[in-house]
Amino acid sequence: MISTRSIGRLSLYRRILSALLGSGSGYVYSHQLAEMSGCTAAQVRRDLMGVGYSGSPARGYAVADLIESIDNFLDSPEGSRAVLVGVGNLGRAILCYFQGRRPKLNIVAAFDKNPQRTGRVICGVRSHPVEELETVAEKEGATLAIITVPADEAQRTAERLIEAGVRGIVNFAPVRIQAPPRIHVEDIDITMSLEKAAFFARQPDAETETAQKESAT
Amino acid sequence: MISTRSIGRLSLYRRILSALLGSGSGYVYSHQLAEMSGCTAAQVRRDLMGVGYSGSPARGYAVADLIESIDNFLDSPEGSRAVLVGVGNLGRAILCYFQGRRPKLNIVAAFDKNPQRTGRVICGVRSHPVEELETVAEKEGATLAIITVPADEAQRTAERLIEAGVRGIVNFAPVRIQAPPRIHVEDIDITMSLEKAAFFARQPDAETETAQKESAT
DNA sequence: TAGATTGTTAATCGATTAACAATC
DNA sequence: TAGATTGTTAATCGATTAACAATC
């Protein structure tokens, strides 16, 4: 079975491969992809095995075909629809960041409890009053959500989203969201990351902490 | 030795404990802290053992004392000084987010290559031209950095920061930063997190993925 | 063929979990 | 004392790494 972390790495490989494709490379070896991604060659080979794509010992992996295989593996054919709750600074930054970045991942609506932040279109996404969360999320068929509300509203927001049919959540509020096992939650805790970096940064060099930890596992 | 992930959890416990302190609770049991943090009671006990604080079988852990122990363990006595490079939407959001949030973690300067984003004070932090990165970072004694520049500038930015004395980096650009082992790098990849959530969200319920993965490990 | 790379299995490593004596 | 919790060791689990035959 494919490892949990493999999924994250595949997302990374795909991005690197797309850049390679643009630069005209037809084939890559696992050790090349490893160097560019910061993973090991063995990880790369095992991950690619997981998506069912085979390389050639002579030429490595065909870039274009491999991208297609990863697409088929990672993406839902009809694409995934996401909503974002909390149109503060961070929420707006994420809306703008995702604008047209991944065609299979669309943010289809945003919500905020502050009337001054609703009724507008932000980076191509309409912002609604949070009261309409359930009706709009269900109407749009959203299965994903991004939570950028304050900490004390995050859990309640998650529960409403799950009730409305959301199955995957990326949470930026500085609390761990509690959810049933069938719901996938990625907690991205920026303060924690900075505190971890601060801790390890001041450890003596002896720390063999190569440990590149990527976000949300 | 204390586990890498323990550091992140300690940061989380501290935040929860601070809220408890405000609500007047004098003592907590490991299972209470576990429930509030989404960790297991065994993890909590082992993590707290790691900071050298002992609880009592009768009353559990003394909240105020425990916070102090975690502070002593995690924080540098003189505090850590961070700079932020890339004052776009995300960079500004992070600047405002951290404003006065953690007294031992100060963002002391920001940088951008765009003159329209420099020479200003954003959420209490002065934004400088990126040409001044080395001089300002060294003068301020920065040991931490937050990178919010576009992907193609991230690696070069990291190298300049390391050269200027930075030992810990939190990177939001969608590339993995390559750095010497003694530098601690936390890569927070928002796109990857959303793609992972999308993948697991559409797996059949059988997936026992409780897996709450927090960002940047 | 010779050499490098791929696919796959076995060994290692690290963190989590389970178990349990010690403590209040 | 009885009961629940803590501190600590042993067992489990999962992912990574190492090893190597198969392939081009």
Write the layout of secondary structure elements.
The structure is a homodimer of 217-residue chains.
Chain A: H1 4-22, E1 27-28, H2 30-37, H3 41-50, E2 61-62, H4 63-74, E3 80-85, H5 89-98, E4 105-112, E5 121-122, E6 125-129, H6 133-140, E7 144-147, H7 151-163, E8 168-171, E9 184-187, H8 190-201, E10 213-214
Parallel strand pairs in A: 3-4, 3-7, 4-6, 7-8, 8-9
Antiparallel strand pairs in A: 1-2, 5-6
Chain A binds a DNA duplex (24 and 24 nucleotides) through α3.
Could you characterize what this model shows?
The structure is a homodimer of 217-residue chains. With 217 residues, chain A is an alpha/beta fold. Chain A is globular, with a radius of gyration of 20 Å. The C terminus of chain A is likely disordered. Chains A and B meet through helix 1, helix 5, strand 8, strand 9 and helix 8 of A and helix 1, helix 5, strand 8, strand 9 and helix 8 of B. Chain A binds a DNA duplex (24 and 24 nucleotides) through helix 3.
Distance between the termini of chain A: 18 Å
Mean pLDDT of chain A: 92
Principal-axis shape of chain A: globular
Which strands sit side by side, in order, in the main sheet of chain A?
Answer: 5-6-4-3-7-8-9
Q: How many DSSP helices of chain A?
A: 8
Greatest interface and its participating residue counts: A-B, 72 and 72 residues
Q: From the structure provided, what is the oligomeric state, counting identical versus distinct chains?
A: homodimer
Largest sheet of chain A: 7 strands, mixed
Helix content of chain A: 40-55%
CA-atom Rg of chain A in angstroms: 20 Å
